[in-house]
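As practice, study what follows.
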Amino acid sequence: MKKILIVDDDPAITKYLDTLFQDNGYETCIAVDGKEALKIFEKESPDLITLDLEMPEEWGPRFFRKVSKTKGFNTPVIVISGLSSIKYSIPKAAAIFQKPFDAKEVVEKVKELIS
């Protein structure tokens, strides 16, 4: 079973994505900021990451810079954020969705990337 790491500080969003992905046959793990996400990434080795950009402690782009330096890193990252200039923040993102997002589109993108 493919595993998705959800990185977002908004409990409503993480709960929603968690349910959405599990209903579509994915395993999930959740981190509330970039610092926690790095630890979980190393422990769980997820197949895909959904990443919010604005979080307390460590924000999305900084986490992405760190995680992408991990040896052999090629995990697709889907940015899900409320920021308007998000397309410039993580140029290597596999996809970018602005909140509020279309759940169906997110699931289709996930399937395309890791099925």
Remarks:
- The chain has a mean pLDDT of 93.
- The first helix runs from residue 11 to 23.
- Helices lie at 11-23, 34-44, 60-67, 103-114.
- The two ends are 10 Å apart (CA to CA).
